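Review form for a predicted model. The reviewer records the input and the model, then writes brief findings.
Reviewer: anonymous (R2)
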Amino acid sequence: MNPPDFGALRTGRPDCPSDFTLDRLHAGELPKEDTLKAERHVAGCVECGARMTERRAGFGAIEGVDPRVMLARIRTGLDKPAPLPERLLGWLRQRSAPFAAAAAAAVVLLVVSTQQVRPPENRAKGSLALHVFRFAGDHSEETVSGGAFKPGDRLRFVVDLPAEGHVTVLGVESSGALYTAWPFEPGVQTRFAEGTGIALPGAVSLDEKPGRETLYLVHCPVEVGPPNCTSQGAIAAPVCPAGCVTTPFILVKAP
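Model under review:
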């Protein structure tokens, strides 16, 4: 029996990249020349742009599926496999009906092996996103919201922005205290154009305080400027000027 040809699965026009190609583009697995070709196509194709948006949103793109619950089930229930939610199965069937079961298994394996799930609170699908990378030796690797961190971990931030505007990363400690995680000092350029994968310069080291902290990427329109936000407690997003939007990333620091 021949294995299914995942490279042939596609939506859109015949000249659009296959779903497998877009998956590899999202995972950073394509050769440089193929990456540039796929990125150029996605930039000029409305439908493929939407397909990439779904991939970046992960489980957050599926209505009724909470990515945090899915990841928790996967982490704690590998010895007792549970059926996937019906909404998730329906979403998979729509995109590749002949291979729905294989695709479902691939999605679960992707979450376990790459930990790409991010909570979707306070952001529209495929728009504002905060990616947190942790330095490990001579490279950095992307982390997952809600994961464990240690005092002294060095982090850098990469953001996806739906429009030009000002960017700030704020942190809320378990006590509710608000602090600025980025920029690190006054005078740093905080205005960026619309785009994905925008690296914020510099890195931050986590302090010795254990417990849960939440980072919030704050994005404000150009006319608002860098925001002046106030804390609303440990489990609530800070209040920022009208027009600004936020998206969270949870850190759980070990003692």
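Findings: The mean pLDDT is 77.
Further findings: The helical segments are 19-27, 32-44, 46-57, 67-76, 86-95, 100-114.
Recommendation: see findings above.
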